[in-house]
Design a protein that fits this description.
The complex is a heterodimer. Chain A is mainly α. Chain A has 21 helices and two strands. The longest helix of chain A has 32 residues, at 164-195. The longest helix of chain B is centred in the first third of the chain and has 35 residues, at 2-36. Classes of the chains: A mainly alpha, B mainly alpha. The interface between A and B is large, with 56 and 40 residues.
Chain lengths: 530, 111
């Protein structure tokens, strides 16, 4: 059986990251130099980033059809498969890019920390889990990779275990997160009990009255099984994505982690959960006759909870006195926008949602890392004590301002462009059009919140002696400048970016036919020996 | 979608150019005024009837930045909601989470 090089490159990424996560502690036993550990982690992360770019190039330029990798050459629906389409490839590149940037930032940020080998070990495991979640074509494998991602995330939040705040946040996060993954596990049991399959393409076929070989017809009540599966899955992923009212854990957990990890948690981990929801709602369940009313209800739930998240995130942002908590509440707000876009369940809404997902990932990573640079310099997250530090760190301040304006939706930055698409999608949505008011008002609140942060950091007179504070080291400033440039660039080239990358990814998410055809073709190849 | 984004980009470019010009004027004015009045260290010390207090204690609460309307109209509602919902206590979170789970299951299965 001939396997495409691009799908091999996709399949090897999570394996490479998790293998490296196991190898790094062994290296640290033999070699006691942190430069070696950092070099090893950065090498693996760079390789993964390059591989993901090749996969994305292949998916966008060479072939638009989803690619399947069958583990152990066991074809679907028997074996576990990775199925990568354009949306999955785009997410893979985003994950690898941000983790690499965070790792580069971490070199100096973590210079005074002990046990950094474990930090990079967890970071590699975290990346493996996230990549597995976006590449997998198997609902149980998604549970496994979700656990890999989550366990690494709990460890990273608790990394500074000498502080009670980190321990408390990590324990709360772990308990709440475990409840979510357990709910998803129960959802998987309902799906398996109803459909007799764990393969996503097979599930999509069975919902449409067809099937892949071996597993046969559904064996349970399709409506009830699907409703329970979707309800529990939506609940579990809404918690992982911090969609209100399941957002409680985020403002505690994200600020407690080291700043590069906060950037990854807020920037990309919550998006992995959003992406899993997109995959289920739009690729697997949407348009299947027995579940149309369920999917419709789910879309309304997404809109209502999206609005709720946006309002809660925006209002709570304003009252924070802790820089990282303010940025964390901004995540709740922006996840609300993404949920609102998804809830429209049309190409315009999903384009806006996916574009905002990318923009928020870049902008939020930038804000958390810039906040990290300030905290690294002065050792506090409190606005009063951060007062005036920005003037001593002009490049970091400029990057922070660009990120803040981008996420607040100031033109011509990237956040403005995706909010504009969301605005347009709602204006054209008929009776839901009045919800544009929510987008406008919460954007104003976000601007006030971010300007408050910038005012404290930059414009206020220092209350501490800041004369010895200097600009952040080059290896910390460079990632900030790269992300800030991306915020500007993604705004300026938005028409091209949306047209060439986002719209095709949205098409692939809606294209159930191609998704199941890829699975059918690999079965034919296997059975035909070809 | 493309024409709309292009139109916005053109407008945004003009706004950005105008903003840059304004920023340059602002920066220049700051430079000029700073050179006119040098601030002494004594000026930064808070005047508090002879009491010695740290500058951080003299700062206004964040809410004051925006908001008489906010405080008067919404703060009591907001504080009540925050105290009830955002307690930070794990068992409270779990209660809200399970209520939400039950609602979602009812909405999708029954409705």
């Amino acid at each position: 059986m001939e396997v495409n090089y691009a799908i091999q490159f996709a399949a090897i990424q999570p394996f490479l990251a998790i293998a490296a996560a196991f190898i790094l502690p062994l290296i640290s036993l033999a070699i006691k130099r942190r430069e070696v550990w950092e070099g090893f982690a950065l090498t693996i992360l760079s390789i993964n980033f390059i591989l993901s770019l090749i996969v994305t190039y292949h998916m966008y330029v060479i072939s638009s059809k989803p690619l399947i990798y069958a583990f152990g050459s066991w074809p679907p629906p028997i074996g576990i498969v990775y199925e990568v389409d354009r949306a999955g490839a785009l997410m893979g590149s985003l994950i690898n890019g941000l983790v690499l940037v965070a790792a580069i930032f971490s070199i100096r940020y973590m210079e005074h920390e002990e046990r950094v080998q474990w930090y990079y070990t967890l970071m590699l495991g975290f990346e493996a889990g996230m990549l597995g979640c976006v590449y997998t074509g198997d609902i149980f494998n998604l549970f496994v990779m979700l656990e890999v991602m989550s366990v690494a995330a709990y460890g990273l939040v608790a990394f500074r275990r000498e502080t009670h705040e980190a321990i408390e946040a990590a324990i709360k996060y772990a308990i709440v997160g475990s409840v979510a993954t357990t709910a998803y596990f129960i959802a998987v049991a309902f799906a398996y009990g109803t459909f007799g399959t764990l393969n996503m393409a097979d599930l999509a076929l069975k919902l449409r009255g067809s099937t892949l070989p071996v597993t046969g017809s559904p064996i349970g009540d399709v409506f009830l099984g699907s409703a329970l599966f979707l309800a529990l899955t939506f609940w579990a992923f809404s918690l992982k994505a911090a969609i209100a009212p399941n957002h409680f854990w985020l403002p505690d957990a994200h600020p407690a982690a080291p700043s590069p990890i906060s950037a990854l948690l807020s920037g990309i981990m919550v998006k992995v959960a959003i992406f899993a929801l997109m995959r289920y709602i739009f690729t697997i369940f949407r348009g299947a006759p027995p579940v149309i009313p369920i999917v419709q209800s789910l879309n309304y739930a997404l809109i209502i909870l999206g609005v709720f998240s946006a309002i809660i995130g925006a209002t709570l942002m304003l009252t924070q006195r802790d820089l990282k908590r303010l940025i964390a509440y901004g995540t709740v707000l922006n996840i609300g926008y993404i949920a609102m876009g998804m809830g429209l369940a049309n190409p315009d809404g999903l384009t806006a949602a996916l574009f905002h997902l990318v923009n928020h990932a870049v902008g939020k990573a930038l804000l958390f890392m810039a906040a990290g640079a300030f905290i690294h310099a002065i050792g506090t997250r409190n606005f009063d004590e951060l007062a005036g530090i920005g003037r001593k760190m002009p490049l970091t301040s400029a990057a922070f301002l660009i990120g803040a304006l981008a996420l607040a939706g100031a033109p011509p930055l990237n956040g403005f462009m995706s909010k504009l698409l969301l605005f347009k999608a709602y204006l054209e949505s008929g009776w839901l059009a009045p919800l544009v008011v929510v987008i406008v008002i919460t954007s104003v609140f976000a601007l006030m919140g971010y300007l408050k942060a910038f005012y404290h950091i930059y414009a206020r007179q220092p209350v501490r002696d800041v004369s010895s504070i200097k600009e952040a080291p080059r290896s910390m400033v460079s990632p900030l400048l790269v992300l800030a440039a991306l915020c500007i660039l993604l705004g300026l080239i938005a028409p091209i970016f949306v047209d060439r990358l986002i719209a095709p990814a949205v098409s692939s998410l809606f294209n159930t036919q191609d998704y199941v055809s890829a699975a059918q073709s690999i079965i034919q190849m296997t059975m035909g020996g070809g | 979608m493309m024409p709309l984004l292009m139109m916005v980009l053109e407008a945004a470019f003009v706004i950005a150019v105008v903003l840059l010009i304004l920023l340059a004027i602002y920066g220049f004015s700051i430079k000029v005024t700073k050179s006119l009045s040098r601030e002494s260290l004594e000026k930064r010390k808070p005047f508090a009837c002879g009491e010695s207090i740290p500058p951080s204690k003299t700062s206004l609460p964040d809410m004051s930045m925006y908001a008489i309307v906010w405080r008067r109209v919404f703060q009591s509602l907001y504080t009540t909601l925050r105290d009830k919902l955002h307690t930070g206590i794990l068992s409270d979170w779990l209660v809200w989470m399970f209520i939400f789970m039950v609602v979602i299951v009812i909405v999708l299965v029954v409705v």
